[in-house]
Amino acid sequence: xxxxxxxxxxxxxxxxxxxxxxxxxxxxxxxxxxxxxxxxxxxxxxxxxxxxxxxxxxxxxxxxxxxxxxxxxxxxxxxxxxxxxxxxxxxxxxxxxxxxxxxxxxxxxxxxxxxxxxxxxxxxxxxxxxxxxxxxxxxxxxxxxxxxxxxxxxxxxxxxxxxxxxx
Length: 167
Fold this sequence. Notes:
four-stranded antiparallel beta sheet; single chain
């Protein structure tokens, strides 16, 4: 195959005059330069120009996002907020209990604390709710009385929660 192609090319090339060989050589070189320019050089040059134009805008956006991230980090402690107290804490805890599917027998404000009484409550659901309330409302348990019932995992409980003093 290779020799047949070489023989065909040699037959074609030998049949050409010196003038035709010169024209074919220069024409082939010109076509090669045009192809190399259009396939390799021009796209790279256009890409560099596009990057040169967009890079300053991207750098400005990066600087702005960095400044905003630093500001957000600086403001993060302020977003921790203050734990609700009194009636607001009672309402928030009551709504949270309802959202978690727990029904409190009684929720009342006692001084700085909110006392929650529940009968026949599932203990795992109570502890999960308590952990969520501790994080969400920044409360701590001040006093708790839990009595196990005959049914597995069911308890009667009374707990007093107050705004946490620890940050």
